[in-house]
Specification:
- By secondary structure, the chain is mainly alpha-helical.
- The chain has 3 domains: about 1-80, no CATH class; about 90-185, DNA polymerase, domain 1, CATH 1.10.150; about 200-400, hpI Integrase, Chain A.
- About 50% of the residues lie in helices and about 10% in strands.
- It has 16 helices and 9 strands.
- It has helices spanning about 35-60, 70-80, 90-100, 110-130, 140-150, 155-175, 200-210, 215-230, 235-240, 270-280, 295-310, 335-340, 345-355, 360-370, 375-380, 385-400; strands at about 1-5, 10, 25, 30, 245-250, 250-260, 265-270, 315-325, 330-335.
- The chain has a 3-stranded antiparallel beta sheet. A two-stranded antiparallel sheet has the order 1-2. Strands 3-4 form a two-stranded antiparallel sheet.
- A hairpin with a 5-residue loop joins strand 1 and strand 2.
- Helix 1 packs across helix 2 (about 70-80).
- The N and C termini lie far apart (about 90 Å).
- The relative contact order is 0.07.
Length: about 400
């Protein structure tokens, strides 16, 4: 079957029906009407033609995606040969995979991440006009999917690299369940691009504390920032902290919370800087900017930039900043306040206290809830060699004293 899409484009695919060449009329483009079976075949081909044109008129895929794969899918649907309910298809296996992890012990955040990547795969199928089999997920698919996520969705390369890892995990699960996968799957890799680590030093925090502020929203943001930099928690946990989480353990006061992302219970000693804020606020934590936690997180991010700009945290540092013109993040040298977000609280805590002999890394990991020292070091942008340098400095001090 040939489908003409204008003067410069036509596509061909097999119709799925067979006929003796001697029974075909070149003049009409249909079977000769000399036998009943040929007449029936003519009717079927005309029905197929009508079905294809109807599908073409109804389709929502972009014009550039009307291709041979699209036509083949439509012909399969006409004949009822479509395996769209089969787990061999990527979309159907993704649906099965999501239902499986929803009923597992996976955290809500993990389930949400897989929902996101499944939606991306679904949108990619619509973009290309093709239904992919699980076994189609090979290195060629990887390159095309990277281009789509970068050029169409305008995602950063780190986000794309992370999504590829999720796609591979889904395919590995399919392989375990007997679904045919590409032989190239072992080489289907995600990736991580090293991102500059931006933190607020103790000097930065002191400048922020000394800055005169009048707006209540910035006063609230400052208190939460200080609390965040001395508790080492993600913003999703930071803004949930309340006095109801206080516990006294062997005479010491702790904030005991169940981390939303990891499900781990952490016990955080109350730092003197946090105590100052509590004393100032009648033993209460600052209020949220709204009654909705998600909205409060968004506003906290916004006000942090204004707060740090007011405190003249304008040292030029390397970082990634979103460029509205190109609609993607761009690495460069920027004033630090432009790079500040709520993520800076936990990272500043880990970075500021790391390397101080009074704060061994395992103690810090107990607060940040990193599972391994390698994860912790990667998080703060340090390399294992820093351990050796740390030890060398300690021994140098001992030698100086002697």
């Amino acid at each position: 079957m040939r489908l003409s899409l204008g003067k410069s484009k036509s596509i061909k695919r097999k119709t799925g029906v067979f006929i003796n060449p001697n029974s075909w009329s070149l003049a009409t483009g249909y079977p000769k009407q000399n036998e009943a079976k040929n007449k029936n075949l003519s009717v079927k081909l005309k029905e197929l033609e009508a079905f294809v044109y109807e599908s073409l008129n109804d389709t929502k895929v972009p014009p550039h995606s009307i291709n041979g794969d699209w036509l083949e899918t439509i012909i399969d649907k006409f004949h009822g040969h479509s395996k769209e309910d089969s787990k061999e298809f990527l979309a159907e296996y993704c649906t099965f995979f999501l239902s499986k992890i929803r009923s597992s012990q996976k955290s809500l955040s993990t389930v949400k991440k897989y929902h996101t990547i499944v939606n991306k795969l679904s949108n990619y199928e619509k973009h290309t006009g093709k239904k992919y089999l699980v076994q189609d997920i090979d290195l060629a698919f990887r390159e095309r999917f990277i281009d789509y996520l970068s050029d169409v969705d305008k995602l950063s390369m780190n986000t794309i690299g992370r999504y590829l890892k999720f796609v591979k995990t889904i395919c590995i699960d399919a392989d375990k369940n007997g679904i045919t996968v590409s032989k190239q799957l072992p080489f289907f890799m995600g990736f991580t691009e090293e991102s500059p680590t931006v933190t607020l030093s103790f000097d930065d925090l002191e400048k922020i504390k000394q800055t005169k502020l009048e707006e209540e929203k910035l006063l609230i943001a400052r208190d939460w920032l200080i609390i965040g930099c001395y508790t080492g928690q993600r913003v999703s946990d930071l803004l949930r902290i309340s006095t109801s989480m206080f516990q006294k353990i062997q005479g010491f006061n702790f904030i005991v919370l169940n981390q939303k992302k990891t499900g781990k219970i952490v016990q955080i000693p109350i730092h003197p800087e946090v105590r100052k804020i509590l004393d100032k606020r009648n033993s209460q934590f600052p209020p949220l900017h709204t009654n909705n936690l998600e909205s409060s997180k968004t506003l906290f991010n916004r006000y942090l930039k204004k707060l740090c700009e007011s405190a003249q945290i304008n040292e030029l540092v390397e970082g990634n900043l979103y460029d509205k013109e190109t609609e993607r993040t761009k690495k460069g040298l920027y004033e630090k306040f432009k790079l500040v977000s709520s993520h800076i609280c936990r990272r500043s805590f880990a970075t500021n206290f790391y390397g101080d002999p009074e704060y061994p890394t395992p103690l810090l990991m107990n607060i940040t809830a990193h599972s391994t020292e390698r994860q912790f070091l990667e998080y703060i942008g340090k390399k294992p060699i820093d351990y050796s340098l740390q030890l060398a400095r300690i021994w140098a001090k001992i030698e100086t004293k002697n």
